[in-house]
Amino acid sequence: MTDLRTAFGEAFGRAAEGVWHAPGRINLIGEHTDYNDGLVLPFALSRGVSVAAARRDDGVVEVRSRQAGGTVSAPVEGGTVVSEGWPSERAWAAYPVGMARVLREHGTGGASLLIDSDLPQGAGLSSSAALECATALALCDLHGVEIDRPELARLAQRAENEQVGMPCGLMDQSASLLATPGHALLLDCRSGLSAQVPFDPSQAGLTLLAVDTRASHVLTGGDYGRRRAECEEAAARLGVEALRDVKDLAGALGRLRDPVLRRRVQHVVTENHRVEASVGLLRAGAVGELGAMLNASHLSLRDQFEISWPEADTAVDAALRAGARGGRMIGGGFGGSVIVLTASDRAGRVRDAIAAGYAKRGWTAPEFLDAVPSAGARRLA
Fold first, then answer.
1. Which of 65, 173, 280, 371 qualifies as a FRET site for 130, CA 20 to 30 Å off?
2. 281 Cβ neighbours under 8 A, 6+ residues apart
């Protein structure tokens, strides 16, 4: 993201008033629990999305991306982006424009925005939420609007739900806005309350690898929405507000005849328990014991929630065979990334084993990133 201020001046013919950054995230554990009012445990990455911006007073949001190219201009006053049927080449701009349309109710207005990202696209590291959050901070600062961060996270979630048409939960936006270095964020997705949980694998001689499986991750397709609808249907049949409220798993499974709904409930309920157990391990300083939690989560996502994909399964299997402590797919599923917890002195061996597993199958080589818990969204300049 070299010299974003200079690039802004070249793009818009005037000076940027500031640069804002919001990180991508990795969810350590707690997958598909967020929209079930459950618990999640994400942390922020060092990589993310940066936005150089300047205020406009004509009610227009003008957006350019250093990755996508082209310019998109849209009025702040408008309906939902999803209802306007934007073509695919403009889809990336729905996130900042949608964010601006939600925030206009709180007193923000137009802006010129230049976007830059060093997050790999399609890797499931929440580049969309990072873009929303960086845009939200920029618009609030430019227009002198103060919104506390938990509320801003909910507004960013609303922008993605209503404007983009993606029925995501609260986790990604909260992680991007609330995370702190050396910690994971325990988030209760029903109440919005959060707590910082110490998480620094390096102090225990461990490395958490993020593996971009290179299988593209697109959540606006129907599979993610179907999983959410199945969870909502199961909750309705069980007579609870959300699957987070299921206390007697055996009893709930006994009341559901549909085998698909039984599998979905089993994953969500046990995944919430895995989040609680993982928090206990981290607070006790037992980072190395997280491996078993990661493995159990992956098996549940693969077999009960049925959202894993061949590249993810291969990466996890190869890592474990090479001596990793544990691993699992992350994100919405059907593509994206895997995380692997390994002793730091074995990290190279684990990388090589995963790459060899891909080469054997003729797949595009995976990409690796050391996932270090980092700072949340902030103004850079």
1. 280
2. 287, 289, 290, 293
